[in-house]
Amino acid sequence: MPQQPVRIIGAGIGGLTLGRCLLKHGVPAVLYERMPSTPRHSYGVTLHASSYMPLLDILGLDEFTFRRRIAVDASLGGNGHIEPKSMVYPGKTNSVSFRAHREKLEKLLREGLDVQWEHPLEKVEEASSGVALYLQNGQRIESSCVIGADGPHSNTRKSLSPDTPFGILPYVAFNGKRRVKRALFDSIYAPAFKGSNVLEMKIDDFVLNISINEQQVDVVSVSWIFSRPARGPTDPLHKPNRPVSGATDIPEEFFDEVENLSGLSQPFKEVFDAEKLRMERVLHWLMRTVLVKQQELHALAKKGVFFMGDSVHAEPILGGEGANNAITDGIELAKCISTSGPSGILSWYEARYPVWERGIRNSENAIIAMHNSHKASL
Q1: What are the φ and ψ backbone dihedral angles of 191, each rounded to 5 degrees?
Q2: Does residue 203 lie in a domain region?
Q3: Of 287, 308, 329, which residue sits at a domain end?
Q4: What is the per-residue pLDDT across 294-332, written as a single tens digit (0 to 9) for each?
Q5: Which of 36, 44, 273, 321 has the lowest tally of Cβ within 10 angstroms?
Q6: pLDDT per position as a tens digit, 225-250
Q7: Where is the FAD-binding domain (predicted)?
Q8: What is the number of domains present in the chain?
Q9: Could you please report the per-residue DSSP string of 45-84?
């Protein structure tokens, strides 16, 4: 009798890593992704050797080739170098960490996988053989092993564990992207970056970040982040209860704060120009954390539903290690399934749960250290 495929909900870094590792171990898998197959993650993520080195055997690549394929400056022969001294708080970033282009990484991981695009999950219910997946296109699929890898807003988790709460940390963060012509980049940005792909500065308890998304011959895509601790319950820039759809509702006070920043060196002066920011798409981030209770995971496991990555243990965007955690979870979970089957995942949970708890605590401490704000109450 042919082996039933593992059903993976979500084709982000975690789901793709799991699927690719299962493929290497000879275990069939199908991934269901709500988004279309068009490029959707055109930005950089920082990868550490502890997560990407174990991937190399799975992908059949050496480190040099791997970095040259997915680094944000790969098209110009770069390897995604990050200079830790260019960061306010490097955390785990060291000389072998590098800046990777997320879409290129996902494209590499997708090779050979069965990804069902534009297949959003509507709900999950118990069924005779385990659980039934109901997709928005009307499909109903029964499975004895479903892995939720669909992010902090996981529909898989919400269907079966709707009471798992978000933690919202008391920090303000705004983000945006900009395309910079090569001549401007070389004259204003490059002298400060000095070959790194991340640059930060701190003014009081404000942290300003500029990072490279992708370098091309004629244009460079950069991202910026503006962050600080919240100023109490009446802070107009801290809206912990805003809906997900409110991420693009930017208060006028944000632009006022940017205008009042003083002592900016280049390229921060160029990037954090309030008038230019008014013309761009700005996103308001919430520093969310999620950790599903261990007993809840065990109860869902009995139904054949399991979780990995930030669908079960989400860390905030600042100070967090989301991409690295997703890769590590995918590698380790695939080993567990290939050797012990789904029944072994409970033991995997036991081993990983303390690591997940520690990761969330460390990310919260990293945000405090980054802003040097001991008054923030987490």
Answers
A1: -60, -30
A2: yes
A3: 287
A4: 999 999 999 999 999 999 999 999 988 999 999 999 999
A5: 36
A6: 999 999 999 999 999 999 999 999 99
A7: 5-338
A8: 2
A9: EEE-HHHHTTHHHHHT--HHHHHHHHBTTGGGT---B--G
